[in-house]
Specification:
InterPro entries: Glyas_Bleomycin-R_OHBP_Dase (IPR029068), Glyoxalase_6 (IPR041581). By secondary structure, the protein is an alpha/beta fold. It contains 2 helices and 7 strands.
């Protein structure tokens, strides 16, 4: 049997703030009893549809370089509206790109983690 993604994990300087941002971004509630050391989304959902859980773990070091891996998010066809919503939640907008017939915008979550939205 091939592997599947079980969890996506974010190392965090501020676990709760980062978890709250992504909870609002995904429209998925935080799991009960988050702490400053660990929070999660989807770990306790009973009937998961194959969507990975998202973990947020406190680490002592700050982010210093570009992510080697990042999330690519689908806006559902209204990228500008979704970008505005995410900026309202605390994200920062980066550069717009249009290559190989695909358009996307690079963004940063409140901790500086890069993600893309198309």
């Amino acid at each position: 049997m091939p592997v599947r993604i079980a969890n996506v994990t974010f190392d965090c300087e501020n676990t709760l703030a980062t978890a709250r941002f992504w909870s609002a971004a995904f429209g998925r509630p935080l799991d009960p009893d988050p702490t400053e050391f660990f929070a999660s989304i989807g770990l306790t959902e009973k009937d998961r549809d194959g969507t990975p859980s998202v973990f947020f773990i406190l680490v002592p070091e700050k982010k210093t370089v570009k992510n080697r891996t990042h999330l690519d998010l689908d806006s559902g066809g209204d990228r500008e509206t979704e970008i505005a919503r995410l900026v309202g939640l605390g994200a920062k907008r980066g550069a717009d790109h249009d290559e190989f017939g695909h358009s996307w915008t690079v963004m940063n979550d409140p901790e500086g983690n890069e993600f893309c939205i198309s």
